[in-house]
Amino acid sequence: MTEAEIARTIHAYYLASYPHLGRTLEYDTDLLNEWFVDSLGIVQTVQFLEDTFAIDVARADIQVDNFHSVRALAAYVRRKLG
């Protein structure tokens, strides 16, 4: 699976799970500050990533660098997939 395919899957997940009427979710939108994903949303995102991509998200990997945006999450998942 390419990083672009991963990003599209994650993007669709956020649009369905955390809709914001009148706002556009770009691949570089700050999920934590602009899309308002809170701590529960991070937990749900981890579960989504693990279930969808069959990866294990380590606690140490749950950090801003990896969860900042759709693009950052896609890059993280791609690295985990090898």
Automatic annotation (TrEMBL):
Highest taxon above the source species: Bacteria
InterPro entries: ACP-like_sf (IPR036736), PP-bd_ACP (IPR009081)
Any Pfam family: PP-binding
Domain Carrier positions: 25-77
SUPFAM superfamilies reported in the protein's UniProt record: ACP-like
The protein's name in its UniProt record: Acyl carrier protein
Top-level taxonomy: Bacteria, Pseudomonadati, Myxococcota, Polyangia, Nannocystales
